[in-house]
Design brief:
Blueprint (H helix, E strand, L loop, with lengths): L1 H46 L5 H5 L13 H15 L12 H8 L4
Helix pairs in contact: 1-3
């Protein structure tokens, strides 16, 4: 039974670490997409300067572009997940070891 629990613990640790790695990759991709979107918006604003930038061209009164960058927070959460799942290696020790026999009967017969 203990061996099954240890195996389950190992599988759970692998799954959790893979999930944390996926979160890290998504956070990095999100930050890169945010940067690319801002760069494209700046280029559009520059090209449409005479028309009042993007908002003026589209006749929008409330046209503020704001994309929150939560990538750092997600990376911290992923790091905490990996830290929580770390469990030292556990081994099975039976009560019928040699030491037990010698402790019970005081040595060899």
């Amino acid at each position: 039974m203990l061996n099954r629990i240890i195996r389950l613990q190992a599988v759970l640790k692998i799954i959790t670490n893979q999930t944390a790695t996926a979160l890290e990759l998504l956070a990095w991709q999100s930050s890169q997409m945010r940067t690319a979107i801002y760069q494209n918006r700046m280029a559009l604003d520059y090209l449409l300067t005479e028309d009042g930038e993007v908002c003026g061209k589209l006749n929008l009164s409330n046209c503020c572009l704001q994309i929150d960058d939560n990538g750092k927070a997600v990376l911290e959460i992923a790091k905490e997940i990996k830290k929580i799942t770390h469990v030292p290696i556990q081994t099975w020790e039976t009560t019928w070891s040699k030491d037990w026999w010698f402790k019970l009967f005081g040595g060899p017969w």
